[in-house]
Amino acid sequence: MTDETETREGPTRAGFVALIGEPNAGKSTLLNRMVGAKVSIVTHKVQTTRARIRGVAMEGSSQIVFVDTPGLFRPRRRLDRAMVAAAWGGAADADLVVLLIEAHRGMTEGVKAILDSLREKVGGRPVALAINKIDRVKAEALLALSKEMNEAFPFERTFMISAERGHGTKDLKEWLGERMPEGPWLYPEDQLADLPMRMIAAEMTREKLTLRLHQELPYELTVETEAWEERKDGSARVDQIIYVAREGHRGIVLGKGGETIKAVGQAARAELEEFMGRKVHLFLTVKVKENWLEDPERYGEMGLDYRDGA
Description:
The relative contact order is 0.15. It contains nine helices and eleven strands. It is globular. It folds into two domains: 174 residues, Rossmann fold (3-Layer(aba) Sandwich), CATH 3.40.50; 113 residues, GMP Synthetase, Chain A, domain 3. By secondary structure, the chain is α/β, with parallel strands linked by helices. The longest helix is centred in the C-terminal third of the chain and has 18 residues.
């Protein structure tokens, strides 16, 4: 009989890794690459990750729980401030932090601001640097950027990666696995994320809306899964509400003859069915809630603290 924290590959390990960086640095793409499934929404828009989504990845006998934080930026509204507070909170709670930067953008003002806050916010936690999108620059520029970053902050390791293509991500994952504290796994081996399916489903629909609407309604909408019914035939009926801040936004979400919401619903349903491996009946309703950006309950559903936005 073996100890529950032992496997054939040695002692089990488990811990939390926070991915931090500027908006659009590729944190969600890297999380999905590490986990091997889509658990965080990925769009061309910045600031799409609101809640601290946890993705669970296995690496040998190690379980790595990734905390995908909202991008760090200069906050203007209550929602922005709550998102930035959540990002730093995720970093402070983790065993290890990975700062992700874009190779072609280098050390931006935003990256400098993050470096200035790192020591204060993460204490003595180890921080690794991952330079992403390496296919966009030449080797000399990469080496110069790595040198500049490591002179600015004592990173434990530097990784050159392409989260989208997978280059270098295996080395990063193996290194993270080795650095996790010894202890029993925190989640079942086959569990990908600790978010309730209701929230994952809402995030999928919000991603499709973000992609479809482009610049029209950047962050003036949110999606809530109102009801989830398991049916006898193995399928699920999912009812969601899309909250918009103004009456005029309702028409934009619906589209001419309802074509926008129909396309969004079809795309979200297809992705949800693929994720769950079974049939899903998805029903979307658009409601106007003028002050949803000031509603504490909405913040709680997004994994944010309303008070952090003060």
